[in-house]
C-alpha cells in the first residue's frame, strides 16, 4: 500500500489567489515594513515541535516504513511569517521573514530558506526543509535511519490548548499556499500565534524507511527548522520525541510491530518504570 492520504480538502482556487494578493493578512496594519537587523524589540515566534503521534508501520512501494503524524505550534509572542519572491525564469523563491514589533511596524529579514512549488499530490508551495524526522539509538543518540527534510505549506490548522497569550480568534495569515498556482511570483505563508500546523500520518514524505532496522528500542525524533533558517525566540523546544519499541514481524514477510513507550519535548523521554 502506498503511503498516501488526503491532508485536508482545500477551498476553491479563487480563494487562494485572493489570499496571496492580500498583503495585510496579519489582522493588523503594520506601520512600516523595512529591512535591517534584529534589535531585540521584535515579537519573536517560538516553534514548538509536538511529539510524534499516530505512529504505525506500513508499506510504501514494498518497503517497511514508520509513519506518523507531525505538528509544529507557534507558542511565541509574534507570528511566524515568511514571504517568498522570485524573478522570471527563477524556479525557487527567495525568502524574507517578517518580524512584528510592539509598535506595529514590521522588520523584513532575509533568510537562507527557499519556497518551492510541489507538484503531484500536493500542488502548492512549500517552505523547503521545515521539518526533519529520524530514528535514533536512545543510548548514544546516533541516527539509525533518517528521512528527507520535509517542506511544509505553513498555516494555522488548529488552535493550541491551553490558549497562548495573543492568540487571534481565527488564523489571519494565508495558509492556502497557492494551490494549483505554480506561476505565482510572490507567496506569503505562516503560522499565527497560538496555532499549529500538522500533517497526518500516511501523508506523502511523512515516514522513516525501516529497511535494515533491527527490532529494539529507538527514539523517533521530529525537529522543526533543522537547519536554523528561521528567526525564533526559543530553540529548546524545536525537537520532540517518541520512545518506541519495534518488534519482529509476527510472520515471514510481515511488517514489524511498533509501540510508543513515552513522549517528550526538548529532551529525550525516560521509559516509565515497569
List the helices and strands and how they pair.
Blueprint: H1 13-21, E1 33-35, E2 42-43, E3 47-49, E4 53-60, E5 63-74, E6 80-85, E7 93-101, E8 106-118, E9 124-136, E10 143-146, E11 150-152, E12 158-159, E13 186-191, E14 195-199, E15 207-209, E16 216-224, E17 239-247, E18 257-265
Parallel strand pairs: 1-8
Antiparallel strand pairs: 2-7, 3-5, 4-5, 5-14, 5-15, 6-7, 6-13, 7-8, 8-9, 9-10, 9-11, 9-16, 12-14, 16-17, 17-18
Number of helices: 1
- State the helicity in percent bands: under 10%
Note the beta-strand portion. 35-45%
Number of domains: 1
Give me the strand/helix succession. HEEEEEEEEEEEEEEEEEE
The total of beta strands comes to: 18
How would the global form be characterised? globular
Task: Indicate the low-confidence ranges by residue numbers.
Answer: 1-31
What is the average of the pLDDT values? 87
Q: Main beta sheet: strand number and arrangement? A: 12 strands, mixed
The assigned structural class equals mainly beta
Q: Any idea what the radius of gyration is? A: 19 Å
Distance between the termini: 36 Å
Amino acid at each position: 500500500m502506498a503511503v498516501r492520504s488526503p491532508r485536508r480538502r482545500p477551498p476553491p482556487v479563487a480563494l487562494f489567489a485572493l489570499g496571496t494578493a492580500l498583503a495585510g493578512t496579519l489582522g493588523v496594519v503594520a506601520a512600516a515594513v523595512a529591512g535591517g537587523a534584529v534589535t531585540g524589540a521584535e515579537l519573536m515566534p517560538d516553534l514548538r515541535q509536538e511529539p510524534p503521534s499516530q505512529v504505525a508501520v506500513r508499506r510504501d512501494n514494498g518497503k517497511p516504513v514508520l509513519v506518523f503524524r507531525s505538528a509544529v505550534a507557534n507558542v511565541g509572542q509574534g507570528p511566524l511569517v515568511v514571504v517568498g519572491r522570485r524573478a522570471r525564469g527563477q524556479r525557487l523563491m527567495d525568502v524574507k521573514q517578517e518580524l512584528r514589533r510592539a509598535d506595529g511596524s514590521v522588520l523584513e529579514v532575509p533568510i537562507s530558506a527557499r519556497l518551492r512549488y510541489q507538484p503531484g499530490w500536493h500542488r502548492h508551495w512549500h517552505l523547503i526543509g521545515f521539518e526533519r524526522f529520524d530514528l535514533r539509538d536512545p543510548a548514544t543518540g546516533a541516527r539509525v535511519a533518517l528521512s528527507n527534510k520535509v517542506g511544509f505549506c505553513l498555516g494555522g490548522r488548529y488552535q493550541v490548548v491551553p490558549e497562548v497569550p495573543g492568540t487571534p480568534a481565527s488564523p489571519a495569515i494565508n495558509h492556502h499556499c497557492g494551490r494549483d498556482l505554480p506561476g505565482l511570483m510572490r507567496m506569503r505563508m505562516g503560522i499565527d500565534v497560538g496555532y499549529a500546523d500538522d500533517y497526518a500520518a500516511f501523508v506523502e514524505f511523512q515516514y522513516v524507511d525501516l529497511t535494515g532496522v533491527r527490532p529494539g528500542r529507538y527514539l523517533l525524533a521530529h525537529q522543526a527548522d533543522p537547519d536554523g533558517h528561521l528567526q525564533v525566540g526559543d530553540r529548546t523546544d524545536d525537537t520532540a520525541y517518541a520512545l518506541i519499541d519495534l518488534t519482529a514481524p509476527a510472520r515471514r514477510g510481515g511488517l514489524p510491530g511498533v509501540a510508543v513507550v513515552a513522549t517528550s519535548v526538548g529532551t529525550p523521554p525516560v521509559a516509565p518504570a515497569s
